[in-house]
Amino acid sequence: MNELAIVDRLRRLSLPSANLTLGIGDDCAIYRPRAGEELLFTTDQMIEGVHFTRAQSAASIGERALARSLSDIAAMGGDPRFCLVALAASDTRWIEDFYRGLLRLAKRTNVTLAGGDLARDEKFHCDVMVCGSAPRGKALRRDGARAGDSIFVSGRLGKLWDRRIQPRLALGRSLRGLATSCIDLSDGLSLDLHRLCTASGVAAEIDRVPVTRGSTEERALHGGEDYELLFTLPEGKKAPRGVTLIGRVVRGVAGQVHFQGRPLQPRGYDHFRKDS
């Protein structure tokens, strides 16, 4: 199978979209936003030996590649609209299986594959860009937390790095107009909470961390790859069902976090730090 055949097959498999007036097959996709809608854009890379291994199935890697970007859309309270995928691989069968997994998740989340790029390389790597949308002025951000807010997470932390990601899209949408800030936990609670607090100019105190079965508190604090939502609610606001209260936002040095009374260093995953 050559590149033209692969592209033609992807065109036939991709979901239609009323707002996507031109998709796979031209130099650019054309998307027509709705009135009163703001567009959200995010991108995430998947690199062999960094984010996955050849022991994993191509379909699971494809699904995970899209899920990582969808988690960012969830953190902004958005609805995903379409994705663009740049992929380099050496095996056309692997490429087919990769897209099979990606398109399976795309169908479940109503995402249209609108285009991208294909190249040949012995080392597999890809980049998935997702466009989402939110009502104008309603997207969730990192910089709105205020002293007195309560801090919540959407699930247990410390998950294995290769487990299936469940983007919290419905929860993110439910937090629009309710949460004062939100971030997805991709690099570890300690680092991502530090980022949220730095953006908001506040500090935080956390009393507990919900640990997934078989994991450790250390991994739940610093491990990353959880893809849960970390968010803040004003005092007295009722939280959605199924989330866990872990602490509160306080006045203090911007970005400083205390866990059970002790300073918590932001030791989550950093691509450029040698001990990550």
Shape: globular
Radius of gyration: 19 Å
Contiguous low-pLDDT stretches (5 residues minimum) are none
Please identify the structural class as seen in this structure: alpha+beta
Biggest sheet strand line-up: 8-10-7-11-9-12-13
Report the total helices: 6
> Please, what is the oligomeric state?
single chain
* Helix percentage: 25-40%
Would you list the SSEs in sequence order as H and E?
HEEEHEHEEEHEHEHEEEE
Distance between the termini: 40 Å
Mean pLDDT over the residues: 93
Number of strands: 13
Main sheet makeup: 7 strands, mixed
Strand content: 25-35%
Overview of the structural elements:
By secondary structure, this protein is α+β, with helices and mostly antiparallel strands. It has helices at 3-13, 58-75, 92-108, 169-174, 189-200, 217-222, and strands at 20-22, 30-31, 37-47, 79-88, 112-119, 125-135, 150-153, 181-184, 203-206, 229-233, 244-250, 257-259, 262-263. Strands 8-10-7-11-9-12-13 form a seven-stranded mixed beta sheet, sandwiched between helices. A four-stranded mixed beta sheet has the order 3-6-4-5, with helices on one face. α2 (58-75) packs parallel to α3 (92-108). The protein is globular, with a radius of gyration of 19 Å. It starts with a helix and ends in a 13-residue tail after the last strand. The mean pLDDT is 93.
